[in-house]
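Quick one: structure for this chain?
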Amino acid sequence: MTQKKLVGSLQMDTPEGEAAYKVAKSAHDEMVSRGIYLPERPEFDAGQFVHDDGSPRMPNNLQDLNDYDLGELYFIVETYFSYVVGQFAEVSNEYTEAQEVFKFVAAKVRLGKEGKVQDKNDRQIADRRYVLANAKALELKCLYNLLSKVKDKLEADLKMISRSITLREQRLKTGGRVASIGARKKFSGHVRHPSEEPEHHMDEREEPEEESPKPRVRSRRPPRRRPPIKGKR
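Got it. Here's what it folds into:
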């Protein structure tokens, strides 16, 4: 067997090679067999936060929403975002698969062409098998790009809602501390003015300072008068 015939016998035909690269679906089936599933498309009724097609609708100003509506909006956007991320992963796998199929088909088409290099390139590009494989890869690439933008937009919306929720939680905590301080002052019976000195409360372990004893001042007595000596006048 010549070298050329040996190489030709080792090559796959086009249908067999295309089938070998169909791995995206088999990978998904393997994941499902392990009990792991991609999120399904959520079914939301059209309303304040949902478009007619079921996609989330962001309000103009999150600050105008009450706590309940803000929580509902977060749930809707987060659920839809999870669904889009799953679809993005599937399209990414299909796009990778289509690229490999295209490279295989291009190689098979090129091997069957004869003539000069430029002529072979032209015949390859115009070949029906080449065009179909390339078109499938381009279609998935376009879908991949579109889903990427949708995913990025939903992720940005989700971060914005989360930030708004965090700010409200911080305001609630700050308000609770201020109210607690005000209540303690109210029940103490006296609200100290900022200009007043803080009162000193004696701790149980502290002992009152003893006053130093005052020095005793002795009063002066009048001089003693000596009694007269007898015999002298």
